[in-house]
Amino acid sequence: MRVFEAIADAVVAHGVDTVFGLLGDANMFLVADLVERHGVRFVAARNENAAVMMADGYARTTGRCAVATVTQGPGLAVAGAALTIARQARTPLVLIAGDTPPGDPWHVQSFDQQPYALATAGTFLPVATAGTAVRDVGRAFRAARELPGPVVLNVPIDLQDEPVPAAAATVPPAVPRPPGPLVPDPA
Description:
The longest helix has 15 residues, at 48-62. The protein starts with a helix and ends in a 31-residue tail after the last strand. It has a six-stranded parallel beta sheet, with helices on both faces. α7 links the parallel β5 (124-126) and β6. It has helices spanning 3-13, 28-38, 48-62, 74-78, 80-89, 113-120, 133-146, and strands spanning 18-21, 41-44, 66-70, 93-99, 124-126, 150-156. It is of the alpha/beta class. It is built from seven helices and six strands. Residues 1-102 form the Thiamine pyrophosphate enzyme N-terminal TPP-binding domain.
């Protein structure tokens, strides 16, 4: 099993059946696996900001933790306004953002995603190694639900194709928070 497959398994284990996003080279294998192997509905957006805004609206209307995905560098940068709005609304949302290889600072899409994510979403969690990928996804969902607010889950493109150690591929069962009723503001 590869890291992108383990991430897909973990995302689905957290009750996710819909993902909003824009495809790029740093998230295409994850999205393809979510759709083909797990039957997740992928809602394509025209730009990254719209993808996060759709996920924000989905979370607010369903009471569920929403998931969006964008590619590296400019992909994450374009999502900044929507992440800031979701942060202000305390929307439980996980944005899975691809990233350039850490060892390639001259990559055309390279920029330091952590400070940008902290300034917009407020929470940044990297997938550190192939052996921690499943745990890191769980940490992102927990943070999004309990803080609450958006979390940028950062996944370097070169890490996504690495094999996951067998013991680390086990996805613990998730207990998603049941959706709360949608109640209109009396005003």
